[in-house]
Design brief:
This protein is α+β, with helices and mostly antiparallel strands and about 140 residues long. It contains three helices and five strands, in the order βαβαβαββ. Strand 4 and strand 5 form a beta hairpin.
């Protein structure tokens, strides 16, 4: 669940999506024919997503909506704290956030994160690649 506080339409209200994240990595192909085993990506990044974003709310830290306090208290009762971002939780900003997190998680792995795509729906998504504006 998220909301976009400065949105002028329906997205200003709390709502959810069936997000899908795609990560693109680059590196050298090793003797085993892989850059990295997908299981390592799933373990590191998938676990992070499950622990921080799955079945919770992604909200902007400076959002002053009074419901946030109640959402936060309710989620904490069920062991799912709200994830707060410095920027509005748009798909573009979520892609940037996940790029930052993934880059940190894979710092000791033989790969470099090169792109993140965040799909809100099957036909609406945002991409982030360093050195290029989010799209």
């Amino acid at each position: 669940m998220h909301r976009v506080p400065l949105h002028t339409g329906a997205c200003r209200a709390y709502h959810g999506h069936r997000y899908v994240a795609e990560i693109t990595c680059k590196g050298s192909v090793k003797e085993d024919g892989m850059i990295i085993d997908f299981g390592i990506i799933k373990s590191l990044l998938g676990d992070w997503i499950d622990n921080n974003w799955d079945h919770t709310a992604i909200l902007q830290r400076s959002d002053s909506d009074p419901a946030i306090r109640y959402i936060q208290e309710s989620n904490e009762k069920y062991g799912k704290p709200v994830y707060f971002m410095d920027l509005a939780p748009t798909s573009e900003n979520i892609a940037i956030e996940l790029f930052t997190v993934a880059s940190r998680l894979f710092k000791d792995e033989p790969i470099e994160v090169s792109r993140i795509d965040i799909h809100e729906t099957p036909n609406c998504y945002a991409s982030f690649q360093p050195g290029q504006p989010a799209s």
